[in-house]
Structure formats: C-alpha cells, structure tokens
C-alpha cells in the first residue's frame, strides 16, 4: 500500500465560494520525494492540513502510513513530521530548547535520532542558546526542519519550505531533502517555484483546487503538445506584441531573456514564416530555435488548455 | 537638481559593528526598470527602507525623486509608491474602499479619487468586483490591484518588494505587463524578486552581496561579464561568495 493516499478529497472554507479542493486524488509511494507544484491559492496547504489531521475534509478519504486521517489521527500524529508554511516554533525558547521540546513531545531524545538531523543541526548548533525568534530566516528554516525530524518520522510534510528564500539557499535545502530521502523517509513537499519541480521524483501540478497532471517531471515535459521554440532578439519586449499578433501562434510569452512560442500547428515552414513576418514588422535580428519545454511551460499550457 | 530618479553615493547603514549596507553607490534613471537583487540577508530591505524615507542612513548621500534621504523623508514618501507581497491591501475593505483609502493617504482630492478610481477599475476590468471584499479576490487580481493602487498618485518612483511571490506563471507575466506600462508612462520601477527570469525583464539590475553592490549592469552585459547563459548562473556565481549567513 502507498504511504500517502488521497481519494476524491474535497474541501470548502466558505459557502458559495469555489472550493479550496475539489476531488483531489493522488498517492505517494514509500520512500518517494513527491512535489506539489502550484501557486498560492492552489490548495497545497489545505492538502497538508488534511493529511496531518489538522483539518477535516468535506468529502473523500485519505490515509497516511496506512492510517485513516479521521479515525487514526493519533497514530498519524506520532509518525509524521510537518513543517508548516509559517514559522511555528516557540520564538521565546532557544534553538536547543525548541528541539528538546519537540523530542520530548514525541517521547524521544535529541541523541536517539541525532544521526538523521546531524548535518542540518550542526549548521545552527553554534547558535543553540539563541532564542528562535532572533534567528535569521535561513536558520529558522533549518531549526524547523530539525524539529520536524527529531522523532525520525515515516513521512515528512513540508509546506513551501523554500518560499521567499534566495536561489542559493533553495538549492542547499533541496540537497538536504535528497539526503533525507536516501534515509528512507517519504517526503511530500510543496513549492510555488516551478524550477524546483525537476528535483522531485514525481509531481502534481495543482491550480485552484484541481490537479492538472501527475507524473514524473520528464513525462510531464514529454507530454507537452507540439513543439516549443525560443525567440531571441535584442529588443524582446517590443517583439512580444508583434509575435502575438501573428495568426498561427498558440502560445507566446516572455521567458527571461527569450520569448517562448508555440504554433497552432507544427508545420515545418512555420518558424521561417514567422521570422519573415517579424522582419516586416521591423525586427531584423530575431533568432528562433526549438527548445525542450520546462515545467513552467507545461504549467502555462495546462492553465490555458485545462483539459 | 537632477533628473535621476535615485542617486546614491556611499550609502551606509551600520548597526554597531555590523554593516547591513556597506557604501553602496548607484543611480537610477527616470522611467527605468531597475532590478534590485541579492540573497537573503544581503541588505536589500535595509537599503530599500532608507530609500523610502523609513530609516536614516549612518553615512553617505542619497536622493530619491530629487529629495534628500536625510532631510526630506516626508517629501520622499509623498513622491513614491510602495507595494510588497506581504502587505498591500486591506482584505476586509472592498476594492473601491481600498482605492479610496490609499488614494486619500497619498493626498488625492475627492474629485481625483472618484476619477482615478473609476479609471483604475475600468482598466483592470473589475467593474463587477468593485464592491467585493479584497479578501475574496484571487491572489493575482489582488496583486494587480495593489500595484495600480501604489501608483494611483502618479509617483515618480514605485518600489516593489517581491511583488510576484507565489503568483502563478501566467499572472506573473501579466503583472510584468503592468510594470512595463507604468515605465512607459515615465514611472521609475525599483523591484526586488527571487525569480531570476524576472531579472531579465529589467533594464538594469544590481546584485547585493554582504551589504555591497557587487554587480550592476544590463542583464545581457552581466551574462557576458560572468560568461553565463542565464541570470541564474550570474546570481549563483556572486551569491556563493557571500560570507554572511542568510537574512
């Protein structure tokens, strides 16, 4: 049996408003690193709160480590680790006091599972007598992760651990997750950063309470309909409206220093015809090249063509 | 007097022996989109607070919209707009009430408030939602509204602190359309972001490391200078050298 299973989970917070989750189903295998990828308001935190038994769903069924999230909430609470999106440790306790507190709650000690948190905790150990509220953002994140791991959970739930974190620290965090995965811990992690999707084994793309697709990052990219091209020009911003005005265009949007373009049909001559068209609009030095879509391209495609 | 939106020379903020901002110097042209990047803890927020007239520098010189950051903080506040992802609009006020409130704070007259309010609601296509609580709007709409409200008084400069954090990729791009639109109308845009693709949309960017500005140029020139294919690589190359721990 899979470690995390959701079957047709629905949840509404406000009557008459669109539901936060509607018929969400997916499962996570034992030892998997699974990503929930979607923007704010997609329903990621609601999923975590249901799975950690902090919130009841309106409909559907879910199990974690074989336990039912409603009936067996006691068992679930002792075998999962949860790092909520908002920093939720005790600000007035020191680093060491926080860690000790969570170890005691779970009936264990810091030393019992120290090997698991050693790499992470050693980075903040020099500040172990500092109050948690006085830590920097990066250190708070490491302390929260240490506290979520102190009882060696079977499943680790991480709700947007890298939001607002700079690119370098984000990469370090993902390196830590890979090490934890190798320890056999099942990890469900959410992120609004599409570029982090490729670091997961499987992902669910999620938007306004609906799953858009679930697969490995490679398979999601491979399922991109048709070809995707990158346009380069010294004046990309001026190129955007003109490219969009070309009739055969299905998608055209900015992507860093390039434009990404997909045609309604993948005819062989279409790229050349587009360049001719753009030349007539005064764009003399445009280069076009077929590229491999990334997860963000797939997400944009799914948003514009939901089915 | 000058036409620069921002001038900054050796601007420094020291907390005891810690240089949060360490002698930074740069200028931003009127109408420019200026990206202000840096790792957590590099000093971006401290620098921005000084430029917005919220905190006195320890030393150095700076002008914002032509006003001195030491002597004319109140003038600066009147001539800038500010929006952050964390706090922007009042969720339990309606769209129109938020516009009224912020327009009033920025000193618009009742007549201007009415005109500008109508214009803004129409431009955003929010006629249906004008009487809805902001809290019930999707995040992307909130952010677009927050930005429009931040420039309702036609400031010379708008400061955007991670305006697109957590926003979906389609809405993120629509947000940048609004930024370009504002820049074309002559409003200088000073923006921070953790999305490296967005750095490419700026005319010029600076990257702060440990309180200093270690790089400042157009995205294309920076990529060339660092022999990188993307802004991400440039950022890594610089931020890796940081000695200071995050935030």
TL;DR of this structure?
With 307 residues, chain A is an alpha/beta fold. Chain A has helices at 44-51, 73-79, 95-105, 114-124, 137-149, 167-182, 217-222, 236-244, 270-280, 295-304, and strands at residues 4-11, 21-28, 33-37, 59-64, 67-68, 80-83, 155-158, 186-191, 202-207, 210-215, 228-232, 249-255, 258-263, 287-291.
Topology of this protein?
The complex is a heterodimer of chains A (307) and B (247).
Chain A: E1 4-11, E2 21-28, E3 33-37, H1 44-51, E4 59-64, E5 67-68, H2 73-79, E6 80-83, H3 95-105, H4 114-124, H5 137-149, E7 155-158, H6 167-182, E8 186-191, E9 202-207, E10 210-215, H7 217-222, E11 228-232, H8 236-244, E12 249-255, E13 258-263, H9 270-280, E14 287-291, H10 295-304
Parallel strand pairs in A: 3-8, 3-9, 6-7, 7-8
Antiparallel strand pairs in A: 1-2, 1-4, 4-5, 9-10, 11-13, 11-14, 12-13
Helix pairs in contact in A: 3-5, 4-5
Chain B: E1 6-15, E2 18-28, E3 33-38, H1 44-51, E4 59-64, E5 67-68, H2 73-79, E6 80-84, H3 95-105, H4 110-123, H5 139-150, E7 157-161, H6 169-184, E8 188-192, H7 196-199, E9 204-209, E10 212-217, H8 219-225, H9 231-239
Parallel strand pairs in B: 3-8, 3-9, 6-7, 7-8
Antiparallel strand pairs in B: 1-2, 1-4, 4-5, 9-10
Largest interface: A-B, 34 and 40 residues
- Output the CATH class name of the domain at 6-89 and 156-239 in chain B: Alpha Beta
**Global morphology of chain B:** globular
CATH topology of the domain at 6-89 and 156-239 in chain B: Rossmann fold
Intertermini distance of chain B: 36 Å
Strand arrangement in the largest pleated sheet of chain B: 6-7-8-3-9-10
Q: What is the arithmetic mean of pLDDT of chain B?
A: 91
H/E element order of chain B: EEEHEEHEHHHEHEHEEHH
- Count of spatially separate domains of chain A: 2
- Write down the overall mean pLDDT of chain A: 93
Radius of gyration of chain A: 23 Å
The proportion of strand residues of chain B reads 25-35%
């Amino acid at each position: 049996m899979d470690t995390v299973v959701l079957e047709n989970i629905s949840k509404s917070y406000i009557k008459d408003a669109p539901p936060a989750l509607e018929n969400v189903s997916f499962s996570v295998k034992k030892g998997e690193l699974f990503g929930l990828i979607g923007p704010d308001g997609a329903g990621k935190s609601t999923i975590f709160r249901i799975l950690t038994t902090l919130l009841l769903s309106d409909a559907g069924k879910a199990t974690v480590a074989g336990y039912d999230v409603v009936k067996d909430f006691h068992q679930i609470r002792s075998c999962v680790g949860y790092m909520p999106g908002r920093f939720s440790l005790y600000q007035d306790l020191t680093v060491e006091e926080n860690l000790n507190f969570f170890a005691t709650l779970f009936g264990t000690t810091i030393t019992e599972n120290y090997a698991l948190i050693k790499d992470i905790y050693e980075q903040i150990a020099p500040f172990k007598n500092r109050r948690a509220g006085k830590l920097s953002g990066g250190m708070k994140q490491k302390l929260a992760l240490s506290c979520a791991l102190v009882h060696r959970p079977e499943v680790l739930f991480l709700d947007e651990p890298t939001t607002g974190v700079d690119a370098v620290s984000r990469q370090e965090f993902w390196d830590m997750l890979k090490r934890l995965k190798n320890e056999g811990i099942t990890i469900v992690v959410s992120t609004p950063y599409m570029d982090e999707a490729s670091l997961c084994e499987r992902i669910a793309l999620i938007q306004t309470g609906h799953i858009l697709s679930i697969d490995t990052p490679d398979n999601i990219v491979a399922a991109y309909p048709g070809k995707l091209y990158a346009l380069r020009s010294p004046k990309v911003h001026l190129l955007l409206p003109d490219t969009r005005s070309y009739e055969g265009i299905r998608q055209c949007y900015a992507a860093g220093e390039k434009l990404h373009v997909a045609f309604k049909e993948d005819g062989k001559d279409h790229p050349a015809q587009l360049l001719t068209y753009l030349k007539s609009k005064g764009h003399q030095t445009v280069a076009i090249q077929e590229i491999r879509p990334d997860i963000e391209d797939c997400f944009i495609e799914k948003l514009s063509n939901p089915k | 007097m000058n036409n620069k939106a921002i001038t900054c020379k050796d601007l420094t903020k020291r907390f005891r022996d810690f240089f949060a901002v360490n002698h930074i110097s740069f200028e931003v042209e009127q109408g420019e989109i200026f990206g202000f990047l840096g790792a957590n803890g590099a000093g971006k927020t401290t620098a921005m607070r000084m430029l917005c007239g919220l905190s006195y520098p320890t030393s150095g010189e700076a002008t914002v919209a032509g006003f001195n950051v030491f002597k004319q903080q109140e003038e600066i506040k009147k001539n800038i707009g500010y929006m952050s992802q964390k706090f922007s609009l009042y969720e339990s006020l309606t769209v129109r009430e938020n516009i009224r409130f912020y327009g009033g704070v920025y000193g618009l007259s009742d007549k201007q408030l009415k005109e500008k309010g109508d214009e803004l609601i129409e431009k955003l296509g929010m006629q249906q939602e004008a009487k809805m609580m902001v809290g019930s709007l999707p995040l992307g709409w909130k952010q677009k509204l927050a930005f429009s409200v931040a420039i309702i008084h036609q400031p010379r400069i708008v400061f955007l602190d991670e305006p697109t954090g957590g926003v979906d990729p389609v809405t993120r791009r629509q947000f940048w359309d609004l930024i370009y639109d504002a820049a074309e109308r002559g409003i200088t845009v000073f923006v921070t972001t953790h999305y490296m693709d967005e750095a490419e949309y700026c005319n010029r960017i600076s990257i702060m490391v440990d309180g200093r500005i270690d790089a400042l140029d157009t995205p294309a020139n920076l990529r060339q200078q660092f022999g990188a294919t993307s802004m991400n690589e440039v950022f890594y190359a610089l931020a890796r050298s940081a000695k200071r721990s995050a935030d």
